[in-house]
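Need residues for this backbone.
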């Protein structure tokens, strides 16, 4: 009896030898006398302790007898912890790291085993000698000891499959998750991954075949969603929008997301999301949702996911009735004032009976503009094609979701500048006939005044487009998009303003109506003349490329210098490739020097006042100020602060001395002080000096 009891304890602690559930194989009970039956032979790896002293107790186990040894007992035995070659993780909410893990040959710094996911990037590791078992998503997280799943308590030397309780992290805190298990048997894993027969019906009820989404900020995603029968993501069901691009899925952090494309599933991205992790609950059981806009998440009580079609249809009917009410009470006419996109300016009339994304629609009178509500974010947009309306595209849009407000109630607007949205304070929408017409009339008057004040001749320097290089004369009485227009003397080039607010140079007249050309200002001109622009681009190989040597000037000197340089290159004798390269670099340096000189000239020109008012005595500079101002401007030119970014990138960095556009002047002087100094010096020098830029500054 004594030996049999030790045998049972040893089996349950560390031994692995055959044992069946037949009565013959069971050890004798406590009541069996030791003389009636001999104990069965011990297994091969079992050592019977001498009768003189009892066997040592197993570590961490309490024996139910005490025997005083007659001799010193052997050293205490420490049982070896089993480290399975393979383990299986069951984690329905973390499908990407669920599955089989294989033990690696090496060990970590704490002498703990490591398991790696067989068909994924996951790792199973220990946070310390007696720490927590953790699952990392990838090798980077392993190196930083990060993970979203870990044992609920320190393992204290137990292998992962012997840990009973596990927890998961939802991005803010840890939660016990009974669905997480670590198993040492493939068969047990397969059974755990399948729903038991009596739970299949409950599972099908909790995971409905159809869901219906109501989302006013993203009307294009509203409607019915059907579950994909053969697809699961991160251990959860996936639904796809019927007749649309929407998808409902679970992210790696256990939140329900709605994306406007299938690519959002792999990227864990979307435009709608549950406010909290679902913890295995289906989408329709979560009440709080949020939408993504301008880099942040915003809660919205009107977003609803339901599994009841009747409720969806009732809410949709209420939404449509409210839309009709709002549309009928919307202004019949609106006026858009937008100088960066002059072709979209003017009067817009509401289309009777038409509703897009539960909002009214306006059409431009005598133009192509369509003012409508965007279905991906709830923004008022202006497009020029019906197909763009269906795709939620546009050239103008308000900067914040309208939340049911009309276009004339939105304050902040932006326009499309290539692939970038640029905010513009002068853009506005009004429902007042008087205000709209007066604003447009004032703008036209200002355009005519500016056209009359524009230089009669401009000179284009473009060594890479010699056919377009030369003198351009202003076309009298003609405005394009509210700006003056110039034509090359021989009729082969046109310099004009596009609908996007850029200066373009085209090689044929029909390109003017199409907003096309081969040369362009690097950014919108914002009312500045072509010769006031620093930074031009050339269209080459299907893209716009910045070319520093391209410039437009109101003086003939820059053009003459460029033509003389070209003549020298053409008339020179045949030379070696190395000499050609050196000559080319020299020519580029000359062009860059001309551009810097022009930038300095322009800085001073833009600093002078339009009005000829006298300079206050307090602002008159001391002797030597003009030298410091010129040095300052020259340093700024050398530093490249007149260079503009490539199309679609960043804010415009040109014209640092221009009123209202300070750029990095803190290390020199405040913008206002420097501007006033330059203005006063320019006024004084205009009548007393020639600054050496080819022609007297007063004449320019």
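Answer:
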């Amino acid at each position: 009896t004594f030996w049999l009891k030790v045998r049972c304890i040893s089996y349950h602690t560390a031994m692995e030898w055959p044992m069946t559930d037949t009565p013959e194989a069971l050890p004798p009970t406590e009541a069996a006398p030791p003389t009636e039956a001999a104990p069965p032979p011990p297994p091969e790896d079992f050592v019977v302790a001498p009768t003189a002293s009892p066997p040592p107790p197993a570590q961490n186990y309490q024996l139910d007898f005490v025997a005083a040894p007659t001799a010193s007992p052997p050293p205490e035995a420490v049982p070896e912890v089993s480290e399975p070659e393979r383990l299986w993780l069951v984690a329905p909410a973390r499908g990407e790291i669920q599955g089989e893990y294989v033990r690696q040959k090496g060990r970590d710094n704490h002498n703990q085993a490591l398991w790696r996911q067989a068909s994924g990037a996951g790792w199973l590791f220990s946070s310390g000698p007696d720490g927590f078992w953790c699952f990392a998503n990838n090798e980077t997280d392993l190196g930083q000891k990060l993970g979203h799943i870990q044992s609920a308590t320190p393992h204290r030397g137990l292998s992962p499959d012997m840990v009973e309780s596990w927890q998961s992290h939802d991005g803010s805190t840890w939660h016990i998750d009974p669905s997480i298990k670590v198993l040492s048997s493939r068969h047990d894993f397969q059974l755990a991954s399948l729903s038991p027969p009596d739970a299949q019906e409950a599972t099908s009820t909790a995971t409905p075949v159809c869901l219906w989404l109501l989302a006013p900020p993203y009307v294009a995603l509203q409607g019915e969603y059907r579950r994909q029968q053969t697809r699961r993501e991160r251990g959860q069901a996936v639904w796809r929008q019927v007749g649309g691009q929407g998808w409902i899925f679970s992210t790696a952090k256990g939140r329900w997301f709605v994306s406007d494309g299938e690519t959002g599933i792999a990227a864990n991205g979307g435009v709608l999301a549950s406010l909290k992790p679902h913890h295995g609950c289906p989408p329709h059981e979560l009440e709080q949702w949020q939408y993504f806009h301008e880099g942040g998440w915003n809660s919205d009580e009107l977003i609803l996911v339901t599994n009841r079609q009747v409720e969806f249809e009732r809410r949709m009917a209420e939404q449509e009735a409210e839309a009709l009410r709002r549309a009928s009470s919307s202004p019949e006419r609106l006026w858009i004032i937008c100088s960066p996109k002059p072709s979209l300016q003017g009067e817009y009339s509401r289309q009777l009976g038409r509703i897009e994304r539960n909002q009214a629609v306006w059409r431009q009178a005598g133009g192509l503009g369509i003012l409508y509500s965007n279905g991906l974010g709830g923004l008022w947009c202006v497009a020029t094609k019906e197909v763009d309306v269906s795709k939620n595209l546009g050239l103008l849009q308000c900067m914040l979701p309208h939340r049911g407000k009309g276009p004339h109630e939105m304050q902040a607007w932006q326009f499309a500048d290539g692939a970038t949205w640029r905010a513009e304070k002068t853009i506005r929408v009004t429902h007042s006939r008087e205000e709209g017409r007066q604003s447009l009339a004032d703008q036209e008057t200002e355009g005519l005044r500016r056209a009359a004040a524009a230089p009669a001749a401009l000179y284009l320097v473009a060594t890479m487009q010699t056919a377009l290089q030369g003198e351009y004369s202003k076309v009298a009485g003609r405005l394009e998009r509210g700006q003056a227009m110039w034509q090359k003397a021989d009729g082969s080039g046109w310099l004009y303003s596009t609908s996007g607010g850029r200066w373009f140079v085209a090689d044929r007249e029909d390109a003017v109506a199409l907003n096309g050309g081969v040369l362009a200002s690097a950014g919108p001109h914002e009312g500045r003349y072509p010769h006031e622009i620093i930074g031009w681009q050339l269209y080459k190989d299907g893209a716009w490329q910045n070319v520093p040597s391209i410039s437009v000037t109101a003086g003939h000197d820059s053009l003459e210098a460029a033509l003389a340089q070209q003549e020298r290159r053409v008339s020179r004798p045949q030379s070696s490739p190395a000499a050609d390269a050196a000559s080319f670099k020299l020519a580029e340096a000359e062009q860059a020097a001309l551009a810097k000189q022009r930038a300095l000239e322009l800085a001073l020109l833009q600093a002078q006042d339009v009005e000829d008012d006298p300079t206050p005595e307090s602002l008159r500079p001391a002797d030597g100020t003009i030298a410091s101002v010129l040095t300052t401007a020259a340093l700024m030119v050398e530093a490249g602060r007149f260079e503009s970014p490539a199309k679609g990138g960043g804010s415009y960095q040109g014209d640092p001395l221009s009123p209202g556009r300070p750029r990095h002047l803190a290390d020199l002087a405040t913008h206002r002080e420097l501007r006033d100094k330059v203005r006063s010096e320019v006024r004084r020098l205009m009548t007393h000096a020639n600054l050496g830029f080819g022609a007297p500054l007063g004449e320019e």
